[in-house]
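Reply to dn_fold:

You asked what the input looked like. This is it:
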Amino acid sequence: MPKNNQKQLTQRLVISAIFIAISIVLNELLAIRLPWSGSVTFFSMVPLALLGWQYGLGWGMVCGTVMGTLDLLIGGLANFSYVNGITAYLILILADYLVAYGVMGVSGVFKKVIKNSYVAFGLGAALACALRFVCHFISGVTIWADYADGFANVWLYSLTYNGGYMLPELIITVIGCVAILKPAQKLFKIN
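and this is what came back:
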């Protein structure tokens, strides 16, 4: 590998590690905490969205999956006590952590399609959060259905519970992404 390419890869790895660490810290600063891990955070998805925006879908999804793995190890393992069976454990791991955070990598999908970078990034971040909601929604109707007390319909329960924290999270993430785009573009131009 040429020295210049190795330097760029090292720079990308370091920036990604720092952004994932920032995302983990921000993920612990909760605006709202719901039972069973649902929460609204202060901009915790913005660093992941920036990685997807800057480095593309594949890299962004890997970084999101790393974040999801770390979030699972930091606090998500406690959720295993609420579900039973290997299928439920797999759905929990994938739908609430690995895939749910991995989809944040799609935040750059409109980068080359929409000329206005603020609109492109805002829409990409909204799409990423919407896909994350879909992951949690699936988890809600499958493994969390037993907790739908008071709801006649498990689909409505999952929509209400997961939408209750993912809609504010989506709004906060889009605002954060649009607000930080210009300074982030300067950061990523480091040589």
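The chain is about 70% helix and 5% strand.
Hope that clears it up.
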